[in-house]
Every structure is written in structure tokens, then in C-alpha cells.
């Protein structure tokens, strides 16, 4: 990684809430983590139970906590938070963050303007009881922060059956000698940042890597040998006669999303 000479400091003659930037690292890195979690419900009561479960587990407060944990992993400080729950379901969270590195008697710091946005989209309209929960997380950073370091935490924070991850680097920055830098981290594939134990749970991995364009995408589809118990709210329902057919429908829904088939 390049050794940059960037500085920032609080302006002594201005609003103390503002931060004066000097030699700012203009590289913008964006990780988009789009995931789907599936559930098979039996009857309207279970459908509502699923909605309640999602709201309790992934409400705005919980999403904000996950984002704050991401900030710790990528060594960023939270500057501001905005969050909102929706009726009848769904939630959003926005964190404005900065990367301030320095300490002791050291005066210079690296400060990078960044944000994390999270939005959820529950879907319970399927007639056969297949419910899904989609989460869109965008981690946008400037400077030396590498959002790819947060990937394993995202897999642990959510239940992921279908995952689409996009990573792009835009803009450029300069070294002290004026040389332009278009990417300060070597990236071959997003997959390289995922724990192999996590990857073992997925049947299909589609990998698109365009390093010359600073564009990467990895898509994952969960294995289909976990059994109905993984998706049922009540594992006792696995012996119900309609479950086998509905599980086939559930896997079909996953494959359609993975391959973007209407």
C-alpha cells in the first residue's frame, strides 16, 4: 500500500464542528453488499410471525449497531447517525464516518469522509408462503480505508442465502511527488476476502473481475442440501405433505434472483 502524506486538523478560527482538510486522499471505494434471506411459512399466522421476527432482529437500532461494528473493523469513527423504521416493515440506517489515524504527540492525521447506508426490504406476498428479506448495504469510503475488510462480519451479522457483492474504486489521489494513484490496494477478487469456511456453505460462486477498470463482482448461491429445517419457522412442519413442493418453489425463487430471471 502506498505511503501517503495527508494531513488534517481542526480549524482554529472556524466552527469547531468542521474539520480542515489538507492533502486529501480522493480515492473513493464502494462496497455494495446485497443479500437475501429466505423463509418458508405455513399459514397467515406464521407469515406475520416472520414479519415480527425481522422487525425485532433487524430494526433500525440493530442495523445501526451492525454499522457501528463495521466502523470498528475498518478503523473508522462515527460522526453522525440517521435511522428510521417503516410501517408495516423495513428499516434504514445511515452512518457518516471518518478515518482519523494518529495519537500520542503525533500531530498529523489521516481523515477520510465516508458513509455506510443500510436498507431492508421484507417480502411476504408469495402465495405459497415463501418469504424473503433483502438487505442492501453500501460502504463508501475515501482514503486508505478498505471496506472489503468488513465482508466476513456482514456474513455473520445476517443470514445469507443469495449474495451479490460489488466493489468499485473511483477517482485518483496523488503521492507526495505528484504521481497519480488509481488504487492503493491490490485486489484480485472479492472472494479472496471471504473466509473459506463461509464460502463452503455456497453451491455456486460467480466471479467477475475487471481490475483494469477497478470493478469486481462476486455472487453466491447457498447449497441446496441443508434441508427444510433451515427455512421453516417451526422445524416440526418438515413432515407436512405440502412442504416438499414449497421447498422446490423456494429454491426456484433463489435461483431466479441469483440469475436475475423474471
Task: Write a concise keyword list for the protein shown above.
262 residues; alpha+beta; S-adenosylmethionine decarboxylase; eight-stranded antiparallel sheet; two-stranded antiparallel ribbon; 5 helices; 35% strand; globular; disordered N terminus
Question: Could you explain the architecture of this structure?
Answer:
The chain is 22% helix and 35% strand. With 262 residues, the chain is an alpha+beta fold. It has a single domain, classed as S-adenosylmethionine decarboxylase. Strand 9 and strand 10 form a beta hairpin. The longest helix has 17 residues. The N terminus is likely disordered.
The average pLDDT value, as a whole number, equals 83
Radius of gyration: 21 Å
Largest beta sheet, briefly? Answer: 8 strands, antiparallel
Give, in spatial order, the strands making up the sheet with the most strands: 4-5-6-7-3-8-12-11
Summing up helix and strand content along with how strands pair, one would put the structural category as alpha+beta
Helix content: 10-25%
Number of helices: 5
CATH superfamily descriptor? S-adenosylmethionine decarboxylase
What is the CATH class designation?
Answer: Alpha Beta
